[in-house]
Amino acid sequence: MIYLDNAATTPLLPEVVTSMSDSLTLTFGNPSSIHGLGRQASHVVRQVRETVARALAVNSRNILFTSGASEANNQALIGYALANKAKGNHIITTAIEHPSVLNTVQYLHDRYGFDVTFVKPKADGSFPASLIEEQLRADTILVSMMWANNETGQLLPVTEVGKLLVNHQAAYHVDATQVLGKIPVHPEEVGADFLSASAHKFHGPKGVGLLYFNEKLRFDALIHGGEQEEKRRAGTENIHSLVGMATALEFAIEHMDENYKKVELLHKTLLEELNSDAAPLTFYKNQFGKSMPHVLNIAFPHENHDLLLTKLDLAGFAISTGSACTAGTIEPSHVLEAIYGSGSEKLKENIRISFSELNTIDEIKKFAEHLKLILKK
Question: What domains can be seen in the chain, in order of their start residue?
Answer without folding.
Answer: 2-9+256-376 (3.90.1150.10), 14-254 (3.40.640.10)
